[in-house]
């Protein structure tokens, strides 16, 4: 394989992984949107709500960790790596959502209430760290 063929193959793999990663982040964003009252993008863009922004951002970071670990663990096998990234990313999103619901039921930290608060709340900080921790746990499980 020539150097240019290697570059083209690598660039194609990067584009494919990036596409899967972007799709997973969009799915993750809409799952967070589902768990919040109102339209999350409006709450962030127009309402400039720091709690909604922190929760959505931490969810995106967690999905990014899972995608990166899936790429790392693929060992250069593109088809298996893309399939694993999609599956593991979706599992991570589901686990994050379940964790948010569990925190709401067991600890009493409600995402729906947090995004209605105009000031940054401790509960948003805790849930955002939880998102990233779940992302790390899922990422390490993938590796």
For this entry, what is the oligomeric state of its chains?
single chain
Helix and strand string, N-terminal first?
HHHHHH
Uncertain stretches of 5 or more adjacent residues: none
Strand content: under 5%
Number of domains: 1
Treating each run of at least 4 consecutive H or I residues as one helix, how many helices? 6
Radius of gyration: 17 Å
List how many beta strands DSSP finds: 0
Tell me the distance between the termini: 29 Å
Mean pLDDT: 90
Helix content: over 70%
Major sheet attributes: none
Secondary structural class:
mainly alpha
What sort of overall outline do the alpha carbons produce when their principal axes are compared?
A: elongated
Strands, helices and their partners?
Elements: H1 3-34, H2 40-45, H3 50-73, H4 78-107, H5 111-114, H6 122-142
Helix pairs in contact: 1-3, 1-4, 3-4, 3-6, 4-6
Summarize the structure.
With 143 residues, the protein is mainly α. It has one domain.
Question: Can you give keywords for this protein?
Answer:
143 residues; mainly alpha; 82% helix
Report what the structure shows.
This protein has 143 residues and is mostly helical. It has one domain (3-142). It is 82% helix and 0% strand. The model has no long low-confidence stretch (mean pLDDT 90).
